[in-house]
Write a structure and sequence with these properties.
This protein has an eight-stranded mixed sheet. A three-stranded antiparallel sheet has the order 5-6-7, with helices on one face. A two-stranded antiparallel ribbon has the order 1-2. Helices cover about 25% and strands about 30% of the residues. It contains seven helices and 15 strands. It has three domains: about 1-75, no CATH class; about 85-160, Aminotransferase class 4, branched-chain amino acid transferase, N-terminal domain (D-amino Acid Aminotransferase, Chain A, domain 1, 2-Layer Sandwich); about 170-285, D-amino Acid Aminotransferase, Chain A, domain 2, CATH 3.20.10.
């Protein structure tokens, strides 16, 4: 036991936590009660959860089998899809001195999502890769950045075509679950958005707007939504189930928009309607219901 603890201290960089120990009480009269808190979920002061899983390593243990055992013990925990990637879609003008619009906001969001999902995220490498790509581009492009869990970066790009003077949007046939944590992150887990967007674009529309299961206005497939009422720009709160888009967060930060819970009636009676994202900025649109 002593030698095993010495090896653990030499090989492991942090304490294993309570799940490898015991939890209990001792009474003044010598009575006691202890249990072994295997499969225990710890809640830290900052609200983060920590769950430890391990296996008993002995002389004839096989690494693959031990690793599979650890994964099995943690299998009940909800987690992102195994092939999940984080994405950012950036506006790039290859002819501008600073080619990427709102780059710091994009990287702030990417870094926060990487931390939430436990992804590796090397910001210096990302900035370098983006700069190298921008140097090869002329004119305005849409640049897509994808980040995998192990920190691998993939970049793709396409020319950004101009929009018509007054793009149109429609209302989606399905609703969003506002409790879905993936809605708050820009990821590749967006099949429902992609299908709705394909249908909207095929019909000649810029986007489709979603309500949540409570009947509250949420967001579009590729944009946040804003209505103007009494000269004030209103946008749904994050609690409605939406991605805090780059354009949205900047408008809120600058005091140019405020959050408000919005209903279908609010949407239909809005004085003006806008959608916004990092590629297009704030764009006035017309609703086709």
């Amino acid at each position: 036991k002593i030698r095993a603890m010495q090896i653990i201290r030499a090989l492991e960089s942090a304490p294993r936590g309570i799940y490898c120990g015991a939890l209990g009480w001792l009474a003044p009269d010598g009575d006691f009660s202890f249990n072994v808190p295997i499969r225990t979920l710890e809640i830290a002061a900052d609200g983060r959860f920590r769950y430890g899983a391990g296996s008993g390593i002995v002389h004839d243990s096989q690494p693959r089998a031990e690793w599979d055992e650890c994964r099995l013990k943690a299998h009940f925990l909800p987690g992102p899809p195994p092939d999940l990637k984080l994405i950012e879609t950036l506006h790039c003008d290859g002819d501008a001195p600073l080619p990427y619009r709102w780059l710091d906001d994009h990287l702030d969001r990417l870094r926060a999502s990487a931390r939430a999902f436990g992804f590796a995220c090397d910001e210096a490498t990302i900035r370098q890769r983006l700069a190298e790509l921008a140097a090869t581009l002329g004119g305005v492009h849409r640049v897509r950045l994808a980040l995998t869990g192990d920190g691998a970066i993939a970049l793709s790009h396409a020319p950004l075509d101009p929009l018509p003077a007054m793009p149109t949007v429609t209302i989606a046939d399905t609703s969003l679950d506002p409790s879905d944590p993936l809605l708050r992150h820009k990821t590749t887990a967006r099949a429902h958005y992609d299908a709705a967007l394909r249908a909207a674009v095929a019909a000649g529309h810029f986007d489709t707007l979603f309500f949540n299961a409570r009947g509250e206005l949420a967001e579009g497939c590729r944009s946040n939504v804003f209505i103007e009422r009494d000269g004030v720009l209103l946008t749904p709160p994050e609690s409605a189930g939406l991605l805090n888009g780059i354009c949205r967060r900047r408008l809120l930060r600058e005091g140019r928009a405020v959050e408000a819970t919005l209903t279908r009636a609010d949407l239909l009676t809005a004085e003006r309607l806008f959608v916004g994202n990092a590629l297009r900025g704030l764009v006035e649109v017309r609703l086709l219901s």
